[in-house]
Amino acid sequence: MTAAPVHTRPQPIPAERFVLRPLRRSDAGLISMYTADRRVAEGTRAIPHPLPPGATEAFIARVTGTPAAGAAHEDVWALDGSAHGLAEVLGLVSLTHMERDQSEIGFWVAPAFWNTGFASEAVAALVAANPHRSRTLFAEVFQDAPISARVLSNCGFAYLGDAESWSVARGARVPTWTYLRKMA
Q: Domains in the chain and their CATH numbers?
């Protein structure tokens, strides 16, 4: 069994139209605005709707601080397009350590930037950088989000099977598709 990874702050990862950079407290306003949209919240497992006051600030504090003992280690990057005349936060992408050199990827893009290819570009950049040095990446998308599934397929992920996950915003279990990508 592999030893638990040592927590280090995520490093910036370049993409063509933005940079993936670690979150900062000043991102709270845009993240709150985007995740308050029911469509964004319902596309994730963990974002509540309506978004409670202080939830975004608590999330940023959790992912930028030192993980609690035994807690899952999650690294989160903002898609920052400010150097290219775009918004400072276009969406988020994350990697959560799992056991045996595996990580789970998650992502969302703000509705104003849907159908731009930003999600595919962010996932591809994260896969290419492989900051956790994972041997296998997993991802799970809700079955009513086929565009998210296409993002994963376009980035080399293979369909693994059907499952279901709890969605906080929906208050229900939702059918999912699970994907994996073996890394070189």
A: 13-131 (3.40.630.30)
